[in-house]
Specification:
- The complex is a heterodimer.
- Chain A is of the alpha/beta class.
- Chain A contains 13 helices and 8 strands.
- Chain A has one domain (about 5-230, about 290-320): 3-Layer(aba) Sandwich (Rossmann fold), CATH 3.40.50.300.
- Chain A has helices spanning about 25-35, 55, 80-90, 100-115, 115-135, 150-155, 160-165, 170-185, 200-215, 235-245, 245-255, 260-290, 305-320, and strands spanning about 15-20, 40-45, 65-70, 75, 140-145, 190-195, 220-230, 295.
- An 8-stranded mixed β-sheet of chain A has the order 3-4-2-5-1-6-7-8, with helices on both faces.
- In chain A, α3 crosses α5 (about 115-135), α7 packs antiparallel against α8 and α9 runs parallel beside α12 (about 260-290).
- By secondary structure, chain B is of the alpha/beta class.
- Chain B has 2 domains: about 5-295 and about 360-390, Rossmann fold, CATH 3.40.50; about 295-355, no CATH class.
- Chain B has helices at about 5-10, 25-40, 55-60, 75-80, 95-105, 110-120, 120-130, 130-150, 165-180, 180-185, 190, 200, 205-215, 220-230, 235-250, 265-280, 300-310, 315-320, 330-360, 380-390, and strands at about 15-20, 45-50, 70, 85-95, 155, 255-260, 285-290, 370-375.
- The longest helix of chain B is centred in the C-terminal third of the chain and has 32 residues, at about 330-360.
- The two termini of chain B are about 15 Å apart.
- The chains are: A alpha/beta, B alpha/beta.
- At the A-B interface, α4, α6, α8, α9 and α10 of A face α7, α10, α13, α14 and α16 of B.
Amino acid sequence: MTVDVRALLDRRLLVFTGKGGVGKTTIASATALVAAELGRRVLLVEADGKGDVPAQFEHPPVGFAPVEVHPGVRAMAMDTEASLQEYIRLQLRVPVIGRIGPFARALDFVATAAPGVKEILTIGKIAWEVREAIAGRAEHDLVIVDAAATGHIVAQLGAADALHDLVDVGPLRSQTRWVSELVTDPAVTAVNVVTTPEEMPVAETIELVERLRTEVRAPLGTIVANRVLPEPFTRADAAVFAALVAGPGRAALTARIGAGAGDAVDAARLAVAMRSATTTHLDHLRTAVDLPVCYVPYLFVRAPGLRATRMVADAMAEEMGVR
Amino acid sequence: MSDASLDRLVSSREIIVCCGSGGVGKTSVAAAVALGAAARRGGRVLVLTIDPARRLATALGLEGIGNEARRVPDTVLAEAIGSPPRGELWAAMLDMKQSWDDLVRTYAEDSAAADRILENHLYRNLTSRFVQSHDYIAMERLFEIHAAGEYDLIVIDTPPTRNAIDFLEAPARMADFFGGRFLRWLTLPYRVGGRRSSRVLELASRPFAQFADRLLGGAFLEDIGEFFANFQSMYDGFVARAEAVERLLRDRRTTFAVVTTLEPAPLHEAERFCAALGERDLHLGAIVCNRTLPDLLLDPGAAEAAAACRSDAEAVATVLAEAGLPGLDDPARTARVLRIVGESFDRFAVVARREAELRAELAGGPEVVARVPALAGDVGDVAALAAIARHLYAEGASAEP
């Protein structure tokens, strides 16, 4: 199976998942930036509602209602209760005046007790926005989701199917069908997995790709290898570096430029060691997964923010061949 | 607090709960804390891990086993730490599904009732597919092991939750959920016994159920009703147990170690977690900063040397070539390598300075702020755990940043 990475931005729904802590939010935000700069109007959805997306654009927190956080990028934080209210209003045509009030407790109960309710409300809202975009009724052309981590994403993407199996009658049953059709349509959706070149994230990525294929038939996009450290030296340079690290080379260097020379060389040695530890994992990833891999370099920056997001966006644009 | 140290912490507590956001190395740190305690203080020490990397699981002898604890052989431990260990290191993994099933078997009226629950569609969904249920069962399992009294110290790794605070709430949520009035009322007719009519269906005349019925379908609601009717008999046991679990977390024998890297997002989460512990009157014993860059990157002398490597590369390379040093005979190549050494130093120094600032902000919080440097490679064997333990238990791993 081949995926054209350049064409990914032509789809309507790009989901970014991966193990906790690998930088899903950064990659999703940077991809939104790339798409916006190519003229797409983006809706960036933070599925776990943690509130980290706006910070990537140095914008104050946003809620369930989309807010423009950057030219061409509107962001929203998922909120399942708000999503249900919207659903009731739009689909069941039951007027909901103000807050649901006592109903909220009942909802809480159902959502806790009935597996998949929260998941279907999340994926349902996302699919709704995608459908509106396709129909040309939305203020966006592309929905990008900073999605749940590996443990949760399969349940979320598969929620429509799961509910379809559980619920035997009613409007929800028919509605689960189009949701599941949208998220499994390769012309519409691409699920992308973010990882870092470390043992656990790579292992989880390989496992997740398999589960996404078999359990939810999700159309897969690209793997994003985030925080890839640079290879400091070519093989020929490495031999010269080895001569500086120890023995007479180190002594001569110290004699020439001062006592700190040893530390400077040791710092470079750490950089080499850290990079070489990641190589095995990247190799493993490439051989175990038949998907394109976009490499995003480790950023040596002081803090996250728009500047960092832009650096990642530049790397993503180059890897995707869109700039 | 000058004598505060991880050594003192592990010898004065019975439970250490390691928490932090995903990807910070909680599992390795938990295992290293346990290893250090067993090696240095003695006694029987258990590390209860949730989802170890495969190589680590293999190293600890945990592959393909359920909830059963395994002892790390003394020979392996001795080789890793370079001396005979004073105590025993045990490791166990948490099998979520099995733990839930065990709990049901413990509290169900009889085995037929247990079977009905275990086979229920919703129960299977709840326990196997939804991450939230893991929070509670991890704490529950901890309680069980602690109550059995087989270990002097238990170090527990916490499940990867969306929000590290979630699992603190888990016992209360569980008690609240099963003891909730709404739930009792909903399933009341079953409690009275007799005919399998349900309040859920009777509710069909009410607005909520009308709505729920339209949304979810009647059969689905009946499924829910039946599931909770079956759970009825276990209410009291469950609620009492969840309350006991919560008491144990509050107990002075329990302390929390917050693990973080010095990156903004995990650190932010760690700070929120520390605050949440304070609000709940739970004991924050230590913060472990994992994978930190070494101090040499902050050294002014090293920075000067790095600057010289960049600005003076040609001259230095020529001197080295003229000295006839092996491997350094090509001044152009040596100069390029020197420039890379300088640039690499500067890049990592930016990150190291950021880390130092963040670390300074953490000081003054808990009694122990320990630091584990970035090690090249993954933690895949007991020797690597021992290396982490050496840093964790190092002299001066106290409130100094």
